[in-house]
Design goal:
Layout (H helix, E strand, L loop, with lengths): L5 H12 L5 E2 H5 L5 H13 L3 E4 L4 E4 L1 H8 L4
Antiparallel strand pairs: 1-3, 2-3
Length: about 80
């Protein structure tokens, strides 16, 4: 059976968040990332300021400056 690596899961979450909108945690869990991995990924991204987490509403949004970095293309 094919298994998604942790780095692939991180990339998947970042790609989903790259629109800059708030997303409910349930939306992100539908990506096929296990709850434990999801919490680890979001915890890491939050710890280093790459995302904002609204704990009360269980929503996540990518940090504006980090989003700019992700969307830059190399010429």
């Amino acid at each position: 059976m094919w298994e998604i690596t942790l780095s692939s899961k991180i990339a998947l979450v970042l790609e989903f968040l790259s629109d800059g909108e708030w997303h409910e945690s349930q939306e992100l869990l539908k990506l096929g990332v296990a709850d434990y991995d999801f919490k680890e990924i979001i915890g890491f991204l939050n710890k280093y300021g790459f995302v904002k987490v609204h704990a009360k509403n269980r929503k996540v949004k990518i940090n504006k400056e980090f989003r700019k970095l992700l969307t830059q293309t190399v010429a």
